[in-house]
Every structure is written in C-alpha cells, then in structure tokens.
Amino acid sequence: MNNRKITIGRSTDCDLVLADLTVSRQHAELELLENGRLLLTDCHSSQGTFVIRGGHEEKIKQQVVSKHDLLMFGNITIPVSEILTATHLYNHDSPVVEVEKLAQKAKSPGSMKLDLNKNPQPENNIEATDSLSKLFLSFDGRISRSTYWLKYMLPYSVIYVVLTPLDMVTGSFDPTIGYGTFSGIFVLVGLIPSLTMGIKRCHDRGRTGWFLLISLIPLINIWVLIELWFLKGTDGINKYGPDPLL
After folding, report:
1. What's the fold here for domain 5-91?
2. What is the pLDDT of residue 246?
3. 232/146 Cα distance (integer angstroms)
C-alpha cells in the first residue's frame, strides 16, 4: 500500500470504502504530493468526481484540492478534512503517516460522516482552523451565529461606539448620516468584512449570498437581520460547506 496515496470506492479493496451503489468500485484516488499538496484523481468513475467550493460543484478528472473543500463521489459528499482525519494521510506535523483501511456506510444519500471513535479533531471548522484574513476576506464557507456575533457584530459595535464620540469632539460627526470622519473611515474599511461575514451567514442558512440584496427593501429587510442574527444554520453539510458547529 502506498502511504502517500489512498484509493476511494465501493470495493472492499479500497482504503476508504463507500458502501453506496452510486460510487464506483474504484472511484478516485487522493495523493499527498512531495510539496504537501493533495491531488485528487477520478478513476474513470461512472458518476464522476466533483469538488464543491463556495456552493459550486465542479466535475474534475484531476485537481489539487485543499482540506477545506468538499468532495462528492456519486451521492456521497465528504469534506476533505474528514478523509484526512479518518485515514491519517496527512497532519500538520508529519505529512506522511500510515493509511488505515476503513469500511464506512453512508448514513444518508448525499452525505456521509466518518465516525472512527478516535476523538479526531475536526479540521472543517472555519472558526478553529482558518486565519483571520480568511475569515474576514473570503466569501467561501459558513460561519455560525456565535462567530458572527463574537467576531464581527460585537467588535464592530464597540469600535463604532468608541469612534463616534471622537467624531463629535473633532466636530466631524454628521447626525443626518450617523457618521463622522473616523467612524466613516472605519465603515469603509469594514465594508468587505461586512459582506463576507454576511454572505457566509447566509451560506450557513443554506442561502446564496444574493439573499443579502433583500436588505435593500424596506420592512422586508427585517427578515434578513432575523436570519443573520438569530436563526441557526442548517444541520450537517450543505452545498456551501461543513457545519461550523461540528
């Protein structure tokens, strides 16, 4: 067995066995390259191999993937991070470790969650693994209500409250728009993070980021705030990524 490569398919000879009829006997291979990247190769499967990023499915023959991607084999969707955790193909300290043979059944069509009873540390939680730059500048993935409030709404509100008196002292505060020089600059700088966090909260609800456009409609925009601020995201994996609460 090549400890840099795992085979994925329905056959019990595969390193990662997916017991679903939509999965080919030898569906795909995931290989750890010398540079530490992960190369996914479709093995002429009948249903195809797909990479899901930002809610978009792409059928691939061969492609470099990251641990944050979702992979779809037939009706089975699995985060790359769960494959890495389950097979021990890769970790941050040592890029190559022993591959274990697995036999897991899909719990439901379209999704599969590996449970090896080893207390693995999931790598698909954006709050725990991504840098602040990815959290605030990337439009991909999902964030939970707690992340939205604690890492965006609360800091944003505190900074705005601090800057507003400064605007008043300097005489730049305009009550008609609610901003002054300092708070206005802060709002402009925070425009992109505001969009990325809002879009990822929409993704957590299973909605496209275009849902934010409803916030431009008076009265109806209240529902957008309710969804972003108070409503729980969809359970488990959706087309935008893994559940951030898992």
Report:
1. Tumour Suppressor Smad4 (2.60.200)
2. 60
3. 10
